[in-house]
Amino acid sequence: MNPNLIIGAPAIDRQHSELFRSFQKLLSSGDSEESISDILSVLTEQIYKHFHSEEQFMLGLGIPAEMLKAHQAAHEQIVEDLTQIHLNAMHGQGLPIETTIATVEACVNHHLMEFDLGLKPYIQAAC
Ligand SMILES: [Fe+2]
Ligand SMILES: [Fe+2]
Does the chain have fewer CB atoms within 10 Å around its N or its C terminus? Predict the structure, then answer.
């Protein structure tokens, strides 16, 4: 994982790194036996669980309520987008699996830079 994306909370950083590892594994696996739907189900579950634990973690950080709300809304939006990507894939309107995974990865990467890195000062202040 890009070291610039480390936020300084070991459990959360580990989950981010596991997510990027999953993306890389899926992108390098070539013609997988698994269906695109199974791959997206596993990926969505991993992302969903991460968002849940990150939200629990944020509650203990004392960040402003508005910031928490915006961050949670961004998580919800990603889950909604993933659901739509999944539906498109199931109806045969999806993009090739590599493109789909790269799109999800770019989306998570963008979220990390726009929202998760914003937690860094609060984590540092809490230490
Ligand atoms: Fe987040
Ligand atoms: Fe995150």
Answer: C
pLDDT score of 78 more than 70: yes
Backbone dihedral angles phi then psi of residue 62, each to the nearest 5 degrees: 70, 35
Ligand index nearest the alpha carbon of residue 19: 2
Q: How far is the CA of 28 from the centre of ligand 1 (A)?
A: 25
Find the domain containing 52 and state its range: 10-19+36-126
As for how many domains the chain has, the answer is 1
Spell out which residues have Cβ within 5 A of ligand 1, the ion. Answer: 54, 115-116
Lowest-pLDDT range, 33-37, 48-52, 53-57, 59-63? 33-37
Other Cβ atoms within 10 Å of 72 Cβ, number: 15
Phi, psi of 3 (to 5 degrees): -60, -20
Is 31 contained in some domain? no
pLDDT digits (tens, 9 = 90+) for 5-25: 999 999 999 999 999 999 998
